Structure formats: structure tokens, C-alpha cells
């Protein structure tokens, strides 16, 4: 039973990974300063690059119509 739960948690983490990084990096960019803020800006841009916006827009379009 623990094995099946572990697989689902791993799949959930893999699917939501770019979104969690995006949210955390956006908050840190606001509150940090100096070189730490620059590092978080880079992390934010990398997270944006990993998100497949074509699938996201298709999903939003299906929800709207």
C-alpha cells in the first residue's frame, strides 16, 4: 500500500514542480535583495521556461467553453 501511495505522490510532485517553484520564486523575488534576488529571478525564468503553456492554454480553453 505504501508503494502505491509513493508512486502517486511522486507523480503529483513531478506534475506540480514547475508551478511550486514559480510561486516560491515569485515570493522570494519580492522579499529578497541583492544577489539572492538575482538568483531567484533566474530560478523564476527557468521555471517559466519549463511550463508547457500550449497545454495550459488548451486546458483553460476547455474550462471556459
From TrEMBL:
Domain of life according to the entry: Bacteria
Protein name per the record: Uncharacterized protein
Organism, as annotated: Aliterella atlantica CENA595
